[in-house]
């Protein structure tokens, strides 16, 4: 291969060129490893560079091996020694590099999996704490309105017990309920009896809208029903006199009160809810992006290792060429 000018490797790029090719690839891989945010957008640049140079290096290696085989068949002096030396190149180059590659590949995967596991555990605990906070604030809010509804119902029942005249009962209750609403005890109050007949009702403004009764079944064992209308910023409580007396009387009064939600409390609950959604979206995004980033980086890493092997092989071929050239000169 090296004793005839036609079979020499003079036309191939020198060893410094392939050293530079390898160092550029290794430098790019190291830089991306230190700046993971670049991997998503720039991984394909390094991968394309590596694959392109691998094809070029593979072509020169194929030509070198083909020339070496041809020279060996022609009995050119020194080619037998060169061919024997080339056979041990895999042991000297490929095996150590592949061992390093497999070890590094597994290490990277283990580190990413460990990071995912740690982040997942942290996120679960963190989200659980945020959910507990949200539920706790909701519980405080519910207790606040339910306790206030209990006091309000007690006042209404106490006033109702003084109304002995059936003819003026509903009118008096209407005036009393209207007064409570005007004093902003609630933005809407509706009183019904056990037959679902209206006793009195009053509303402060149009923003307080009651749901249909059939959508809010009042079970015998259910002391009150409370729910929030986020769109109208209201909170509704259904409570019966049974809840106060604890007696399963046949005759009882039912109150439906609607309150304007505390804007500060509502804002805080909204912030907690949005934050919880954000954390969950970040967790999903992290899982997806980490998986893609891992695959992209491992692709760059694998192509860099392949380019390293091919570059080293070409450097070895060039070194053999330089080593055997003096023997060729002596044989002329």
User: Which range does the strand content fall in?
Assistant: 5-15%
Number-wise, the strands total 5
Shape: rod-shaped
Counting H and I runs of at least 4 residues, what is the number of helices?
7
Give the helix level as a range of percent: 55-70%
Give the spatial strand order of the biggest sheet. 2-1-5-4-3
Distance between the termini: 15 Å
Summarize the main sheet.
5 strands, antiparallel
Q: Name the poorly predicted regions.
A: 1-7, 209-227
Give the quaternary arrangement of the chains.
Answer: single chain
Considering the chains and any ligands shown, give keywords for the structure.
five-stranded antiparallel sheet; alpha+beta; rod-shaped; disordered N terminus; 332 residues
In words, what does this structure look like?
It contains seven helices and five strands; from the N terminus they run H-H-H-H-H-E-E-E-E-H-E-H. Helix 2 (39-73) runs parallel beside helix 7 (263-331). By secondary structure, it is of the alpha+beta class. A hairpin with a 4-residue loop joins strand 1 and strand 2 (198-203). The chain has a five-stranded antiparallel sheet. Mean pLDDT is 75; it is low at 1-7 and 209-227. It has helices at residues 15-34, 39-73, 79-87, 89-161, 166-182, 241-245, 263-331, and strands at 188-193, 198-203, 224-229, 234-240, 253-260.
Give the helix/strand layout.
Layout: H1 15-34, H2 39-73, H3 79-87, H4 89-161, H5 166-182, E1 188-193, E2 198-203, E3 224-229, E4 234-240, H6 241-245, E5 253-260, H7 263-331
Antiparallel strand pairs: 1-2, 1-5, 3-4, 4-5
